[in-house]
Write a structure and sequence with these properties.
The protein is mainly α and 184 residues long. The chain contains six helices and two strands; from the N terminus they run ααααββαα. It has helices at 61-74, 78-88, 98-110, 113-126, 145-152, 156-168; strands at residues 134-135, 141-142. The structure holds zinc ion (2 copies).
Length: 184
């Protein structure tokens, strides 16, 4: 496996293409500081386009996870999240952007049970290598926490936290956590 070299985030005012001086018009951070996580004015250190929408995924997993979480927390309804995912359409060979990851994550947590099966199918189509490893007695496939961690590019510990939180909230979930979680 080839190890990927992660790039440092671009601070406010040190952009090569996008211009955020003397402060960021969106997150209001002053020049020299990091943008707020998830800021739409942060420049990608790889392609120099908007970081949250590009396909580089070139930041460290820790930075990536924080950006995805910040974006995720900005979603307030599933329609918006679905629109983001739909608008992205098919981009074969491209990694999903941070925004797409966040929208997918939000959808997973918030869509009604009936919709979730469709979403699972779409998810399988966009991640053809990803086959549900677990199955319940009705034949429904479940993803493991490890699979979700890789596919959504969020740390495994965060997947487990989400699963625990959802189980605690009694929501029931459609993916597995090594143990098979029942859907309510
Ligand atoms: Zn900003
Ligand atoms: Zn980029």
């Amino acid at each position: 496996m080839k190890l990927k070299k992660y790039l440092e985030r671009v601070t406010v005012g040190s952009e090569l293409v996008m211009a955020c001086n003397p402060s960021c018009p969106e997150c209001r951070q002053p020049a020299g500081e990091m943008h707020a996580f998830g800021c739409g004015c942060e420049e990608c250190p790889g392609c120099r386009k908007i970081l949250i929408g590009c396909h580089c995924n070139c930041l460290s997993p820790a930075d990536s996870a924080k950006i995805i979480k910040a974006l995720h927390d900005q979603f307030t309804d599933v329609t918006d999240a679905a629109e983001v995912v739909t608008a992205a359409g098919d981009e074969p060979g491209l990694d999903a952007s941070y925004l797409i990851h966040a929208a997918m994550q939000y959808l997973y947590e918030n869509v009604a049970e009936a919709l979730r099966a469709d979403l699972n199918r779409g998810f399988q189509e966009s991640h053809p290598d990803l086959v549900p490893l677990l199955q319940d007695e009705t034949g429904h496939g479940y993803y493991t926490a490890e699979q979700l961690s890789v596919a959504l590019q969020i740390p495994l510990i965060e997947v487990h936290e989400k699963i625990d939180a959802m189980v605690a909230a009694g929501q029931g979930i459609r993916f597995g956590n090594h143990r098979l979680q029942k859907v309510n």
